[in-house]
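Database export, one record per block. Field names are fixed; values are copied verbatim from the stored entry.
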Amino acid sequence: MKKFLSREKFVGPSFNSVMKLLTVGLIFSFLTTLLLQFAMHFQVWGRLNAQSTDMHVALHYVFQFLTRPQMVYSVLACLLLFIFIVVLVNKLFIGTAIYSILAIIAIVAEYMKMSTRNEPIILSDMAELTAVSGLTKMIDKDLLVGAIIAIAILLVGATLIEIYLRRKRAGVFAKSVHNMMFLQSGSRLGVLLISFGLLATPFVVNADQNKAILYHFGYQQQNNIMVDDAMVNGPIMTFVSNISSVIMREPNEYSAKEMTRIQKKYTNYASELNKTRQDNLKGQTVISILSESLTNPNEVPKLKYEGPDVYKNINQIKKDAVLSGTMLSSGYGGGTANIEYMTIAGFPLATFAPEMVVPYTQLVPYANEVPTLPNLFDQREVLHPYPGMFYNRRDAYKDIGIQKFYTTDGLKNKYPDKYTGKLSSKTDYPADKNAYRFLLDKIDDTQSKKSQFLQLMTMQNHLMYKANEYPGSPYKVLEPAVSKNTKDQVETYITGVHETDIATKKMIDKVENLDRPVTLVFYGDHWPVVFTFIDQEAQMKTSHETDYFIYQNKAARDNSKKSTLRQDERPYASPSDFPALLLQATNSKVTPFFALQTKVVDKLPVFVNYARDTFVDNNGKELKTKDLSSKQKELLHDLKLVQYDLSAGEHYLSGDFTHKK
């Protein structure tokens, strides 16, 4: 009898019990997959006509997804997680509750990120979890409360059921549940190792191996447009496809010999450019202003409103600027830090690997070198009236040489409270006019001979755009016919832009009267999320257009009279154009690295970073790489070689290529 009992201990669940456990897991995995996909489609954006707040339309596309092989991958991934959790805790209802809580968190998070940015969650978003206080201002409070209540109910319910089962061990149901668990340590450990190993595979293989696995399940990469990728492949597959980071794939002809040739070529070109340039950054201030979610409402198709011209002052500033035009953003409703990275590093996102979507988290900590415009200056400071943990900015700024980063949650460099005043009690963010006050106070006096780089990232026009956020607003949307919620959001956004327009003029007027030479680049980082009546697929370029200008006060204009910059030189610009354009505006000498960027701006059409292999010429016409001339293709290849060498290659380029002598 003792021998029999001893052998009995090594027997795991019966085949029927295993099937029961798998059936329960499959049901929960299928529901998770269905609801995650529903979060992609039940949205106001109308991307590819596959997003709609019409329940029937959204469900139609969800059920379409359920017929694809990608669905099988999502269900299997969820099933593996379910089995791992249940076997780990070895209690069916507690394990199911834990899985369900994780599923609820994932579904709500996906829905909210899609609602605010029309982007699915990827691994690099995990860095945002440290900025909980900032995130909570951007999410639907009712949905958050509902999720918390559901989680509490699950935990309490699962605990009560487990207590009941423990007391009713002799019952048929209790015995059935008990038999589904792995009571023998050997079989339990085996299941845990297998399920964990399969779940961990995307984290340990390289990107190409990871993609090869996904292709077996029908993965179809959607040209670096994450929302399309998630709708076609499912958010789980999209998440997994971005786990194994690739900064950039090796270009053809990459070698030590080729990079020696490149270094010599652009060292000579820098010498040529510097013959007519002055080394005049000393005693001068260069400012970069990222105006959150700013675009010209007058240029939004179909939109008509009642009220004063919302963009009157900025349009006049653009006319008075030394250079102005339209910037082509890589983002829509989000991706601020990615656009900011391009404006200070001069590398377009479009030439990195598709998997490299957030440079501050995926590139900067691992790159061989990250040469940036700020590194040319003695003083380098960033001002941001918000918490500083988003996008790994704090660590990234240290890596790229920013000396002070002022944020509202800063310890060493605290954004002063006196500059955080809001436009109304109903808004969540500091007003632009107060951010400009801090910026102006940070500009060095005329006696300082140090060069100074300042960057301001505003927050006033950040989502959410609440109804009646600005009491007494003079603006009323006339067309198109939209829902009351959309109308309220658009009117709030327009009012905010109007306030930015007024504040920007006052700030420029003060800069103009400073004795210290000041050169300022101003740009809107991306469209807001409120123009849901725009078909992004049909108007891709339009929905990524924002405004930019480079303005110099009188002291700076006098200081750089020999600058060859023309007001209409770059009617369309990529964010990566700004470093070279600023150095040209100040007529400053360049390193071979910035000489290459100067040639790119001078000779290549504008990079379109919201799509691959696409450019826009000075007339706004889209081009492909095949449309470029042979010399342009050679220049593009030079850029990719340098970008790869500094970011992910062997770093054959010497320090003289990127640093001032």
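Remark 1: The chain is about 45% helix and 10% strand.
Remark 2: The mean pLDDT is 88.
End of record.
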